[in-house]
């Protein structure tokens, strides 16, 4: 690896810019609210792009293109499910959650919101939800670190162990220093870079393979079933892929963006921006994997790395088809996807440990400066644990993401969704929903029942548990009063 390598220089410039943004955000971080939610000051553009970038991890440029490359368009059901789920999340949850968190103790985290919304004096709801966040997010963080390691490994010829640390270092640096503002500002830059890469790359691959007709003929010649949306799928298989969309209602790092918006009025514009960005990115991702089939069929001599690990399809196409400087920018988009999601996840874990454990149970009188520094220490702690989990070089990005996504979607999705639309929900109903959702995902995953993605039974059983247990009791007058005030506020300002 030469120091004059254009790709390396591009990476260094990009990482330096992200860390610089972190230091700029550091100057605007005065208290724990600033560090965890940016003082609820995000405008519609930053809210939209930050929500998108924090959602679309290295999975967008590695896991999904690899799945399309291996199996054809039948894997694109997952993209359809995600688009539907994200839209419904923006429509039903985003604005209401922004208002409900403000009316319920100006909550900074999901456990904080659950605790205030349901008047949980025991702290049990806060503890269990914080534990769920730490367990599943540490797995999710590991997936981001694996994606970053794969990128550095294949781009610079590093060993997996070295690449593991190189890929994680920059993200840890700017999250540690700048907190939520750094994460949100860098997300906006990273979202721009990702959409540039995912529009440009499929166009160039298409040109390199001889245009649309030639490309489609080559894909068909490789395997006619590549065009078949129902290839090797069953009803359960399609439902499982579409079921990914349910996960949006419970992802703490995405929901935090809604909570941090400057007002409900910003949400509608943010929804339009975010959905446009998402549809273009997912379309580009599917195209990269699909057109890659034609390219590597025509050039089998360079297909070795992709044959060995299909999640490298975007990386190899960027290296083969572009000037090294442009390739450096495109590969930085993978780093952007990894960093944007990993940084959000580290921050949510840090906030759970700081706000929901340290401040609530250990140091109720802690100063704001102390809490910010504890938050930074927790970022380092969670990162080290995630690096330990990611140390196995046989890890696959999509497998790690799917488990964590299901865990959050089932444990928190029904609780968040129902809590913002139904005033009859109770504290015991919320507790039952979180426990039933999380346990169902773990058990279903272990036994691989019916071949059905574990988020679907988890979401259904958790929703039923919330309804049944809530009906056995009744919300307090204070809970109903705050819900009605928040709903009125939402309807006046949406």
Please summarize what this structure is:
This protein has helices spanning 6-26, 32-37, 44-55, 58-71, 77-103, 110-117, 124-156, 160-208, 211-222, 235-242, 252-260, 265-298, 304-308, 313-321, 324-362, 368-389, 397-411, 413-421, 427-447, 455-471, 477-493.
Top keywords for this entry?
494 residues; mainly alpha; Sodium/glucose cotransporter; amino-acid transport; Sodium/proline symporter
Task: Characterise this structure.
It is a single chain. By secondary structure, the chain is an all-alpha fold. The chain has one domain (40-493): Sodium/glucose cotransporter (Up-down Bundle), CATH 1.20.1730.10. It has 21 helices and no strands. The longest helix has 49 residues, at 160-208. The chain is globular, with a radius of gyration of 22 Å. The mean pLDDT is 86.
Protein topology:
Blueprint: H1 6-26, H2 32-37, H3 44-55, H4 58-71, H5 77-103, H6 110-117, H7 124-156, H8 160-208, H9 211-222, H10 235-242, H11 252-260, H12 265-298, H13 304-308, H14 313-321, H15 324-362, H16 368-389, H17 397-411, H18 413-421, H19 427-447, H20 455-471, H21 477-493
- Percent of sequence in beta strands: under 5%
What's the total count of β strands? 0
The SS-based structural class is: mainly alpha
Termini separation comes to 54 Å
By CATH reckoning, the class would read Mainly Alpha
- CATH homologous superfamily identity: Sodium/glucose cotransporter
Shape: globular
Number of domains: 1
Mean pLDDT: 86
Q: What CATH architecture do you see? A: Up-down Bundle
Number of helices: 21
CATH fold-type name: Sodium/glucose cotransporter
Q: What series of H and E elements makes up the topology?
A: HHHHHHHHHHHHHHHHHHHHH
- Enumerate the spans where pLDDT stays under 50 for 5 or more consecutive residues: none
Rg on CA atoms, Å: 22 Å
Largest sheet properties: none
Helix fraction, binned, reads over 70%
Organism: Pseudomonas azotoformans
InterPro entries: Na/Glc_symporter_sf, Na/Pro_symporter, Na/solute_symporter, Na/solute_symporter_CS, Sodium:Solute_Symporter
Membrane topology: Multi-pass membrane protein
GO biological process, one term: proline transport
């Amino acid at each position: 690896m030469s120091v004059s390598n254009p790709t390396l220089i591009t990476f260094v410039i990009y990482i330096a810019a992200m860390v610089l943004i972190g230091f700029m955000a550091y100057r605007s971080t005065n208290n724990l609210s600033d560090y965890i939610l940016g003082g609820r000051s995000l405008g519609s553009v930053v809210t939209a792009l930050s929500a998108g970038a924090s959602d679309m991890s290295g999975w967008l440029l590695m896991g999904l293109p690899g799945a399309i490359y291996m199996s054809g368009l039948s894997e694109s059901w997952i993209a359809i499910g995600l688009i539907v789920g994200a839209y419904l999340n923006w429509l039903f949850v985003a604005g209401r959650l922004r208002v409900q968190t403000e009316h319920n103790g100006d909550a900074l985290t999901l456990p904080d919101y659950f605790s205030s919304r349901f008047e949980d004096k025991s702290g049990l709801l806060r503890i269990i939800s914080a534990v769920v966040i730490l367990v599943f997010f540490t797995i999710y963080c590991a997936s981001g670190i694996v994606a970053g390691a794969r990128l550095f490994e294949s781009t610079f010829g590093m060993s997996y162990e070295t690449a593991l640390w190189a890929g994680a270092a920059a993200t840890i640096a700017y999250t540690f220093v700048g907190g939520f503002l750094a994460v949100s500002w860098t997300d906006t830059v990273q979202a721009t870079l990702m959409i540039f890469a995912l529009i440009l790359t499929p166009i160039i691959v298409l040109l390199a393979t001889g245009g649309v007709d030639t490309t489609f003929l080559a894909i068909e010649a490789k395997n006619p079933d590549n065009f078949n949306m129902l290839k090797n799928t069953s009803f359960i298989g399609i439902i499982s892929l579409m079921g990914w969309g349910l996960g949006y209602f419970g992802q703490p790092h995405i929901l935090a963006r809604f909570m941090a918006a400057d007002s409900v009025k910003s949400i509608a514009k943010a929804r339009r921006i975010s959905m446009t960005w998402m549809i273009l990115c997912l379309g580009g991702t599917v195209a990269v994997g699909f057109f890659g089939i034609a390219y590597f069929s025509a050039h089998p001599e360079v297909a070795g790395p992709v044959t060995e690990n299909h999640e490298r399809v975007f990386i190899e196409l960027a290296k083969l088809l572009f000037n090294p400087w442009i390739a450096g920018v495109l590969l930085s988009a993978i780093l952007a996807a990894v960093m944007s999601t990993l940084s959000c996840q580290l921050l949510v874990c840090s906030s759970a440990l700081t706000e929901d454990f340290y401040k609530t149970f250990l140091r109720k009188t802690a100063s704001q400066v102390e809490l910010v520094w504890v938050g930074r220490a927790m970022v380092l702690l969670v990162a080290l644990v995630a690096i330990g989990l990611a140390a196995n070089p046989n890890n696959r990005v999509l497998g790690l993401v799917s488990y964590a996504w299901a865990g959050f979607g089932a444990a928190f999705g029904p609780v968040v969704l129902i809590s913002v639309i139904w005033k009859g929900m109770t504290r015991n109903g919320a507790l039952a929903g979180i426990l039933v959702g999380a346990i169902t995902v773990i058990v279903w995953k272990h036994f691989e029942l019916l071949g059905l993605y574990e988020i679907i039974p988890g979401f259904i059983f958790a929703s039923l548990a919330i309804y049944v247990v809530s009906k056995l009791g009744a919300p307090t007058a204070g809970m109903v009063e705050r819900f009605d005030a928040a709903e009125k506020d939402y309807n006046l300002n949406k």
